[in-house]
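pasting for the record
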Amino acid sequence: MLNSSEGAQCIKVKFSRLKSRQTLYKYQITESTVNDSHFEMNPIKDFEFTSADSTISDKVPGFSITVYSTYKLMNFDPGIIAG
């Protein structure tokens, strides 16, 4: 999610065709976090959802990029490479 506006935005994301319980990990970057010399890209929140309740609601700050991923990767992890 890219929020290029100055203000925070409330969002809802609905997933379809889920077959099992899922966890989404939220990663987020803003100008202030990027300028922090101790910044690390780690999940800041997680969301649990099922096929019966497949909508997440969240708030994203202004001028931010937010990513929701099924992968839980910490700053020190090498990443995921699909072969």
